[in-house]
Every structure is written in C-alpha cells, then in structure tokens.
Amino acid sequence: MIHEQIEKVSAFKRLHSSSSKLLILPNAWDVGSAKAMQNCGFESIGTTSAGIAYSKGFADGERISFEDMLSSVRAIVESVDVPVTVDMENGYSNDLTIVGENVRRIMNTGAVGINIEDGDPSRLKLEDVIIQAKKIEAVKRAALSEGIPLFINARIDTYWLKDIEIADRFAGTVDRAKVYIEARADGIFVPNISDLSLMRKLVEMISVPINVLAGIQTPPSHEVAETGVKRISMGSGMYRAIYSYIQQICLELKHEGSIASYLKQAVPYLDMNDQINRGR
User: Fold this and answer.
1) I want to staple 58 with a disulfide (CB 3.0 to 4.6 A). Which of 3, 48, 53, 248 is the partner?
2) What is d(CA 244, CA 253) in angstroms, rounded to the nearest whole number?
3) Is the pTM for the entire model greater than 0.90?
4) 273 found inside a domain
C-alpha cells in the first residue's frame, strides 16, 4: 500500500515538472464525479472542499466536519486509480498537533497531496504568515513521519480575500510564497488571478510550481501554460455548473412538465452503469 502510494506521489510530482505541459486538475466531490473525470482521461484528480461540503448540505469554509470530509475523500481515493490530492482548507485546526494528525489521516486514505490555504475561514482574513508557515511545517513533519513524500500545495489568498490593498497583493504573494517554501511547501496556489503577465511575474519570482484557479476570465489553457504556470485547478466551478444545470432541469419540469430536451443529452442508462462499474 505504501509503496503504491509513494509511486503515485512520484507520478503526481512529475506532472508538475514538464517544461511545456500544463497539469489540468479537475476537482471531484464524490465517487461518481471522480469516476467521470478518470474515465475522461485525466491523469490526476483533486478534491473540492466546497463541492464536498455542498454535496453534504453545508456551506464552504470548514463548516462540514473533518470526519465527513474525510469520509468523502476516502471514497474518492478508493474509487479511482489515478493520484488524488486533497483540499484540506485551513487544516481544520490551529493546533499544530491536530493539523499533523489530520494530515496523517488524509494520507492513510492513499492521497498523494494536500492543499492548505492561508485564508482564515472563520474571519475571511489572511492567516498570520508565521502561523501558516508553522502549519506547513507540521504537514511536512507528519508526511515524513509516515514515509510519504506528500505534495504540499500552499494556497495564498492575497488575491482572493479583500483584506489586503490591491497595490500590495503582488509583493504580499511573493513574500508569503518565500516563507511557505522555506517551510517546505512543494507548490504555490494563487487563486483568482487571470492576467497572463501577472502569472509570468509570479513564475519569475517563485521557485516552485505555481497553480492557478480556472475561472470565467481565465485565458485558454495553452496560453496559461506559456506563462510557466504548471497547474490549473477547477475548484468548485464544475460542481456549481452542474448544480445550475439541475436547477434548469427542475424548472423545465415544473413549468413545462417534461425534461425531454435534457434527456437527449443524458448518458444512456446501460452506459452509466458501465462507467460507474469500470475499475471495480
């Protein structure tokens, strides 16, 4: 089990090392979504903390319990063959011992990496950079204690939250990245940026692979790849798009009494069974 997990970690890290290829990472919230992503040929999958929370009836921001989140993560990891990296939000605690234990439990599912963010979900403010660095160090210690070279993706919320002046965001991002890299983060995740020149500047200033978040304003993936960014994640976007689609179907059923126009696009019943059973 550990040997197989270490091989998956190595494969996942290699996906960040191509000089030209961008790692496009879809984010799953349950077994069905994870299987769909694997069946479409993606080489790795991330979890979406928001999507998992929404699917369980909770808002995002560590409102779902760690146990419920972990249960979904385990089911996702066990359902697919590709490497899975896990969004653990802010670590689910400010107690470093608990953060370390949470990481161990995530690793025990077979996961190959984690995202840990410096946006405080309870206050919607940036975490103190030193406190966050200590969390990253705790994650690294926990990983090494289990013999798993976990990929630690440190998310920096300088462009996501509104408690830092626009003029200070770039410098603040670079400064935080350097501290987190010193704490042994393997990658830096900067959500809510779409400007290609900004991506290039961050790549020039940050020594580890950079991850961005796909959004409405995000340029095509080949243009993002040309900046030197190594990874682009979908976050909760796919879940929210599907939720909107469900609402459209429900409204048509309510007002028109039919969903025939949607069923024309549906996966046929037997094909659906085949796709879900694939790999079992």
Assistant:
1) 53
2) 14
3) yes
4) no
Cα–Cα distance for residue pair 260/275, rounded to 1 Å = 23
CA 35 remoteness from chain centre: 16
Centre a 10 Å sphere on the Cβ of residue 249 and count the other Cβ atoms it contains: 15
Is 272 part of a structural domain of the chain? no
- On the question of pLDDT at 252 being above 90, the answer is yes
Q: For 148-179, how does the pLDDT look when each residue is reduced to its tens digit (9 = 90+)?
A: 999 999 999 999 998 889 999 999 999 999 99
> CA–CA separation, 6 vs 111, rounded Å?
10
In a domain, 42, yes or no: yes
| 121: in domain | yes
**Cα three-residue angle 26-152-139, rounded to 5 degrees:** 130
For residues 47 and 54, give the distance between their C-alpha atoms in angstroms, rounded to a whole number. 13
Handedness of CA 110, 113, 118, 121 (dihedral sign): negative
Contacts of 77 (CB under 8 A, 6+ apart): 84, 109, 110, 111
Residue 8: how many other CB atoms lie within 10 Å? 21
Note down the domain range covering 84: 1-236
User: Confidence band (pLDDT; 50, 70, 90) for 10?
Assistant: very high
Q: What Cα–Cα distance (Å) separates residue 21 from each residue in 40, 177, 181, 193, 230?
A: 18, 23, 23, 20, 7
Look at residue 2 in the predicted model and tell me its pLDDT: 86
* Tokens standing for residue 181: 């890299």
- Long-range pairs of 174-178 with CB within 8 A, sequence gap ≥ 24: 174/202, 174/205, 174/206, 175/129, 176/118, 176/129, 176/132, 177/202, 177/205, 177/206, 177/208, 178/206
User: Looking at the predicted structure, is the pLDDT value of residue 12 above 70?
Assistant: yes
Burial class (CB in 10 A: 0-12, 13-18, 19+), 121: middle
- DSSP assignment string, 126-146: EPPHHHHHHHHHHHHHHHHHT
Distance CA 68, CA 64 (A): 7
